[in-house]
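Table 4 source record.
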Amino acid sequence: MLIFALAGKLAIVEDRLYKTVPYEKIDRINSGRYYTCYKHGYYFEKYGKYTVSSTSCSIDFDREHKYYLLIVNTKRPKILECYNKDTYELKED
């Protein structure tokens, strides 16, 4: 992540959560073998899917709430973290 910060590729944007899927099944491949893991899937309107492997699905699903997303701003942006806009305040320096 430090490389992206130094290259100026990190950005904080606002987006709306439109769907959550607790314990979503995800198939992975590692060393030529398939395995299954379960992660919480959060789907945002503009920036797509964000998955977390925490033990609880802690984001309240409500289409009215917006979130701050920390993204890698490349051709296909990737969400690194998400924060509830009602809980956090964005300050610009």
